[in-house]
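hey m, so remember when u said the tokens were messed up on ur end? i reran from scratch. heres the input so u can diff it against urs
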Amino acid sequence: MTNRRLATLGVLLGIFLAAIDGTIVSTAMPTVVQSLGGLELYAWAFAAYMLFAAVSMPLYGRLADIYGRKRLFFVGAAIFVAGSALCGAAGSMPQLVAFRSLQGVGAGAMFAIPYTILGVVYPPEERGRAIGLGSTVWGISSVVGPLLGFVIVETVGWRGVFYLSVPVGLVAVVLVAISLDESTGSADRDVDFLGAAVLSVAVGALLVGLQLLETTSSWALPLIAAGIVGLGVFYAVERRATQPIVPLSMFDDTVFITTNVTGFLTSFVLFAAITYVPLYLQSVRGGAGSAALAVFPISIGWSGTSFLSGRSVNRVGEQRLATVGTVLLVLSFGAATVLWTADTALPLVIGNVFVMGVGMGMVTPPLLTAIQNHFGTAQMGVVTSSQQFFRNLGGTMGVALLGFALNLVIRNQLTTISGVSNLGQLQQRLLGSPTPPAGLATILTDGLTTVFALSVVVSVLAVGFAYYIPRERGESSASATSGD
């Protein structure tokens, strides 16, 4: 018999592991660079983590439906904890990047499997509330992470930031082990490892190529082209697979398409804002701590609204909440495009980014609830991991492509600042100096308004897909049969 409360607490701790990693590690990285050197690899400590998390998610989803969500939760938590411990013991920046890659493989499970477990242990009418709790944990982690990271770095050193995951991960595993009772989801244990490998290589090449765009590396375009070709190969492989990683028939399903595309597009714009708005505030106010003025309002708006939208999704409906949320994203990015200058009042900036967070919080739980209720528990792992995969992919591509657009707009102006010619060098300059270079705020504002204008276009597309999410109630009768 499943103890739902303990199981929920265990999986929420799993979500917390993956969620807090970004903000807590970001706080510690300046100290890490001072200790290990390797400033040129600074961005790859984050990129490697997100890359391996993204490429591992689809495989975790398929394996969870075959071998059970509980087992895959244990596997993911074990890899994440091992990677975290190795990161804490790293003796050089290349080692840290390698261990962050391993940590990312574990994070791929922590991004998807906890939400899969919530979808199984809660009935359709309660899933929105449970998923809202998971999204709230993400927001709280974003707020708590920087402060917790600062305290750990100042008291026990930067290695403690990574070691923190060890006890939290162990507690999560124990709670899930003693509380979750489930049967395996599928008798067919044929796993399409070839498809998983091709997808991993294709997505990996695409994301690395996009990451290299702003550096003007000669490898960027060939890797992007290889990634696109690889996706074509993946399609051909999946057509012949008896049990594909992602059944191609799902791409004919309206709920699958609308929810995943909406998740991709909304993450595309919001994660770019989370990445680049802090640069603007640092250039206006000075000091790396000013970045929290952007992150906190977004996180508070996202987490608070996720909690509320999760509780109301069964009453209001997924389609209505997602549509209103995407409209708020259009309005908030539109306001930023028109109103932001180097002299914009701080309360206006904070209020603007808060509405961005509110819009995202209104979208996130309904999308996952809609796809889980539609496909049911038999395919819970595949569809949940697909939602998390497309969100992760959208966020990573948004940061890269909108960053590339930002870099194009400001590149010529950046040459007026000594030692700065691209965004990577600009981030390093702001990281190492409490006083931003003169004129930087104006330069960044010019670029950011272009990014915001592009974000409006992407958000309008998201409104269109959200509006066409079918209005359903309950779990699909064709897919609701399961032994869980």
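this time it looks ok to me. Confidence is low (pLDDT under 50) at residues 476-484. if urs says something different then somethings off w ur setup not the seq
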